[in-house]
TrEMBL record:
Keyword list, A-Z: FAD, Flavoprotein
Cofactor(s) named in the record: FAD
Gene Ontology molecular-function annotations: FAD binding; oxidoreductase activity, acting on paired donors, with incorporation or reduction of molecular oxygen, NAD(P)H as one donor, and incorporation of one atom of oxygen
NCBIfam families registered for this protein in UniProt: PRK06834.1
InterPro entries: FAD-bd, FAD/NAD-bd_sf, RIFMO-like
Protein name in the entry: 3-(3-hydroxy-phenyl)propionate hydroxylase
Species this chain originates from: Vulcaniibacterium tengchongense
Taxonomic classification: Bacteria, Pseudomonadati, Pseudomonadota, Gammaproteobacteria, Lysobacterales
Domain FAD-binding: 10-345
Domain of life: Bacteria
PANTHER family: BINDING MONOOXYGENASE, PUTATIVE (JCVI)-RELATED (PTHR43004:SF19), TRK SYSTEM POTASSIUM UPTAKE PROTEIN (PTHR43004)
Length: 502
């Protein structure tokens, strides 16, 4: 992309963070010509950025056959929590009843390697400076004079999204009431590692290199120190070393002989959500569509799951398998998910305030979350395992993620999620339906006769009746549940995977 040369692609993604990379991989698996534009000239990401994967995101990566790459580099731990109150999900019915502590720089590196294997071009060192859409596509102007043409443009370019602003999509919500600095620092005095409470709220020091044993963090000797400190007042603009020094003094009474900071960034408890996730041929995902406090570690995970919901739908529309209205279901399904995240993030931020009233309230909430039913309810919410899309009334599985059951098939033993590695829909027929005929969709939907090893169980809900058959979308959510007949199956296939072939 040099000079005034213009490239043409079916889909252009702006932003090579976790959301953009996951979306690129999803589209590439569907055979879509996709390219990514990234303002950073290289893949470097400062080590102080947040990171961690919740159980549902690990399941999503398992659905694509790449979860082992992340598990090999991260630390398995019970990272789900509400306002820093740990929620143990070790008894949840999932192959991943835990979270994974892994810095974002490593998450991005592993996703980028996967995208490279799928031969997706990533054009680095380019910024979007403008675009114009017409009835057939979008013309995108890039820094340096380059241009790009795409059928669809997806903004995965963060909370200050240029794509969102240029598209004129409103971003209503709540302004910041608090702000924190997060930095990779060098000090002459070693700060106390761990999480602490001070006059301004919670602050913490840790090392970028650590391991988890028996649920406890053990930091390795040497290496950079990561500091997270609240500011005395909401900060504005780019944070400086003096801003960090003032925050340390206000919270800790000392700056520990702060000498330098390899990186400093700021996060706030601002909560905003795009009024619409789609405007014509322009779509939004990840932080471009929703921003909130990082408490609970939900942002990155919500963005990756946005990408998995959108990818197969956009691919089918590009291929003209499905009508364009299928893209409207992306907003309909994912907007409520992020709205709930914003709501619980605001509640968590309130519980973490340093005043005595908030401390008392947090104590009461801690007692409640120690009880079985609240623990399961909030654990399922924070881990993403309870997400249900509104696909109508019926079996409890409808609209929820399909459990990763062990299956006996004609081709031998399988897991449900191994059948989703190619990001294609699957009809699982458990033999009680008398043989389901999906011939008009056979080019799009894979039918697998199977026997499932139970139990059929959902997080925070418990056991559910074993279905006769299920139609599983590429994102792992159940689009139809059979009752022993094919009633409603043709409608579900047409709704999600296009009209029947002639």
């Amino acid at each position: 992309m040099n000079g005034a040369r213009r490239n043409s692609h079916s889909v252009a993604i702006v932003g090579a963070g976790p959301t953009g990379l996951m979306l690129a991989g999803e589209l590439a698996l569907a055979g879509i010509d996709v390219a990514v534009v990234e303002r950073r000239a290289d893949r470097a990401l400062d080590g102080a950025r947040a990171g961690g994967l919740h159980a549902r995101t690990l399941e999503v990566l398992d659905q694509r056959g790449i979860v082992e790459r992340f598990l090999a580099e991260g630390q398995v731990a019970q990272v789900a929590g509400f306002a820093s109150i740990r929620l143990d999900i070790g008894d949840f019915p999932t192959r991943h009843p835990y979270g994974l502590a892994l810095w974002q720089q490593h998450i991005e590196r592993l996703l980028a390697a996967w995208v490279d294997e799928l031969a997706v071009p990533v054009h680095r060192g380019r910024e979007v400076v403008g675009f114009a859409q017409d009835a057939a596509g979008v013309d995108v102007a890039l820094s340096g004079g380059a241009t790009l043409r795409a059928d669809y443009l997806v903004g995965c370019d963060g909370g200050r999204s240029t794509v969102r602003k240029r598209a004129g999509i409103e971003f209503p919500g709540w302004d910041a009431a608090t702000s924190h600095l997060i930095a990779q620092v060098e000090t002459s005095e070693p700060p106390p590692l761990g999480v602490h409470r001070g006059p301004l709220g919670t602050y913490a020091f840790g090392k970028l290199e650590y391991e988890i044993r028996g649920g406890e963090i053990r930091y390795k000797d040497g290496g950079a120190i990561r500091a997270t400190v609240p500011e005395p007042r909401v900060g504005r603009g780019e944070p400086t070393l003096e801003d960090l020094r003032a925050a340390l003094l206000a919270s800790c009474g000392t700056d520990y002989g702060l000498r330098s900071a390899a990186s400093i960034s700021r996060f706030t408890d601002m909560a905003r959500q795009a009024a619409t996730y789609r405007k014509g041929r322009v779509l939004l995902a990840g932080d471009a569509a929703h921003v909130h406090s990082p408490v609970g570690g939900q942002g990155l995970n919500t963005g990756v799951q946005d990408a998995v919901n959108l990818g197969w739908k956009l691919a089918q529309v590009v291929k003209r398998i499905s009508p364009e209205r299928l893209l409207d279901t992306y907003h309909a399904e994912r907007h409520p998910v992020a709205a709930r995240v914003l709501r619980n993030a605001l509640a968590q931020a309130a519980l973490l305030r340093a005043d005595e009233r908030s401390e008392a309230l947090r104590g009461v909430v801690s007692e409640l979350l120690a009880l079985e039913e609240p623990r399961k309810h909030y654990g399922a919410m924070m881990s993403g395992l309870d997400i249900r899309y509104d696909l109508g009334e019926g079996h409890p599985l409808l609209g929820r993620r399909m459990p990763d059951l062990d299956l006996a098939t004609a081709d031998g033993p399988r897991r449900v999620y191994t059948l989703l590695h190619a990001a294609r829909p699957v009809l699982l027929d458990f033999g009680a339906s008398g043989g389901l005929d999906i011939a008009p969709w056979a080019d799009r939907v894979r039918r697998v006769g199977a026997t499932a090893a139970g139990p059929w169980e959902l997080p925070a809900i418990g056991p559910v009746a074993a279905p006769a058959a299920v139609l599983v979308r590429p994102d792992g959510h159940v689009a139809w549940v059979g009752d022993g007949t094919d009633r409603g199956l043709a409608d579900a296939l047409a709704t999600w995977f296009g009209p029947p072939a002639a």
